[in-house]
Write a structure and sequence with these properties.
Blueprint (H helix, E strand, L loop, with lengths): L3 E3 L3 E5 L11 H5 L11 E3 L2 E11 L5 E7 L2 E3 L2 E3 L4 E12 L14 E8 L4 E4 L3 E11 L4 E9 L5 E9 L9 E4 L3 H7 L10 H16 L4 E5 L18 E5 L2 E5 L1 H12 L5 E5 L23 H21 L5 E6 L3 H12 L10 E6 L6 H4 L4 E5 L5 H10 L3 E6 L14 H12 L4 E4 L26 E2 L11 E2 L1 H22 L2 H11 L8 E2 L5 E2 L2 H26 L1
Parallel strand pairs: 3-13, 14-23, 15-18, 18-19, 19-20, 20-21, 21-22, 22-23
Antiparallel strand pairs: 1-2, 2-4, 4-11, 5-10, 5-12, 6-7, 8-9, 8-11, 12-13, 16-17, 24-25, 26-27
Length: 563
Amino acid sequence: MTSYIENDNLLFFEGNFSKHYLKRDFYKYKEKDFDFDNRKKFLYKNDYYMGQYVVLNKSDKSIAIAIEVSDLICGSNIIKKENIEIRFTKDTLCSVGVGYEWGVLPDFPKENIPDILDYSNKTDLEENNLRGFYIFIKSDASPGIYKGEISIKGTKLSLPIEVEVVDLEVEKNDFAINLWQYPFTVARYYGISDEELFKEKHLDILREHLRVYKSIGGNSITTTIVDDPWYQQTYDKYPSMVREITKNGEVTYDFSYFDTYVDLALEEGIDDQIMAFSLADWYENDRKDEGLVLGLKPGSKQWEEYWDYFLDIFIDHLDLKGYFDITYIAVDERSPDILEAVLKVLSKHKNKDGKTLKIASQLGYKKGYVDIYDRLDDISFGFIDINDENKAYIDKRGDKLTTIYTCTGMYPNSFARSMPIESDWTILYANSINANGYLRWALDAWVKEPLEDTSHWWWEAGDTFLIYPAKKDAKIKKPRTSPRFEHLKYARSMVGKINYLVENLDEDDKNEFISKVKAMNPKDYITTSMNTKEADEKVRDDLYDEVINIYNTIYEYSKKLEQ
C-alpha cells in the first residue's frame, strides 16, 4: 500500500505514531528516509484507531494545508467520514533541562515541540518545514476491512487508508486513570476574578476540562482542604476549597467551593473518588508562607487538635451531601511516620454509620512498612521504585486500588519532549505488573503561557500538565490535548483489550498471550548534564519495538478469539 506521495511543493506521508516530527528532521524526510509504522491498524466494535500523517513543504513559501478524508467502505458497510477526526499538531517551546531555584527559569536551551493537538484539519505550513497531524477513526461499524482515502485539499495528493474492525467489543474498562485537576490555575489563565470563582463562567470552563478528563477514563476528583498543600510547586498557588471563617472567636467552614466543584464532576460522571488534600501538607517543618498554610507538624499536639475539630465538621458535611463513601483523605509523598499520624487521627472520627474516612497515598515503596500500606485504601507507587518485592506486594493487594505514578526524574515518561510512545509504554507497564491504574500529578497545572512556552523552573517541560488551553476568546473553551495525553488514552484502550482477551481466551492461548504482553521491564537511562533522564537510541528503539509488538500481539490473539 502506498505510504507517501509528492508533487513539486509538498511531500505527504504516513507517519510513525510513536514520535514527534520536528523541523530539524526536515531534510531527513525530504530525502525520503522514512520510518513507517509496522503496527496493525485495527479497532474493536465501538472503539477507535489512532494514527499520524505528515505534510512536508519543500517550497520557498508558506502553503495553506487542509486535509480531507473519504468515507471508509467495506462492501455495503461504511465508516462515515464524520466519524473521522483530523487534528494538526502545533509547536510550543520546551526547555531541554530542569532547574534548581524556585521561580527562576533555568538558562537552558529550548526547542519547539509539536505537543499541542489543535481541533482543526487545517494549518499554514511554513516553507522548508513539516507538520504532523493525528487521525482518530471511531466506529460502531460491522466487522471487516475498511478502505478509503486521505487527501490534501486542492491537490492530487492522496493516500489510501485501511483499517480493520474486529468482531469483538470491550464493554467495560476498569483500568483507573487519576490526573489531578487545578481549577484555580484555570481561573488565573482565563481571567476569572475571585468573585467569579466556581460560578457560571468558571464552571463552564471547568466542565470542558472534566469532559476531556473523563474521556481518558478519569474518575477521581481533586479537591483541597488546606491552602497550598504542595508548597506551591506549580506556577499558581492552590488555595483550599474549604474556607475557614473565624467570627467572634468561633471557627466555621465554608464548603461552597468544594461542594460546587464536586457536584460539577459528579454531573459529568466522575464519581469513583473525591481526593481531599490533605491532612499532611508539604509544610510539615513548622514553616508558614504568607499565612496561607497550617504550618503544623503532623503528629504534633497542635496538628492533631486542629484536625480533630475539622474532621468532625467535615464528616458531618460529607454525610449530609452523600459524599462520604467516595471521599479519601489524600497524602502525597509523605513519610511512613506521617502516614501513621494521619491514620491515627482518622481512626478517632467516624460518620453516622460508624465508618472512618478512607485514605489514599502516593509514595515510594519501602521495605518494612507493609503494615502501614495494608491500611491504605488506595496506593500509588512511584514508578522509579518498582522492584520485584514491590510487584509481589501489588499482587498481594488484589482488588484494592493500587496504581503507579510517574513524575519528574523518571524514564520513560510523559513530558512534552518525551517520545509520545513512552506514554503507551507506561500504561502497558502498569498493567503488566498487575497495577489497576495509573496516576499523574497534573492534568492542567499550567505555567504562565503554556501555548507559548511549557518550561518550568524545577520540572521537565510539560510535567505539570497534559492538556492545553483553548483560545481565550473561544465561546466554548474546550482544552486542547497533547500527543502524550492521547497516547495514554490509546494505551488504556489497549489495556482494556488485553484484559478482555485474558478473560475470554482458552487456557493455553491465555497463558501464551500473557507471557507475550506482560513480560516488561524498566528501561535504562542516563542523566544528562541538564539533569534530565533520557535514553540512548537503542533503548528508545527497544521501547518502540516492545510497545508495537504488544499491540500486534493483541491483534493476533483478537483474531484467534474472533474466529
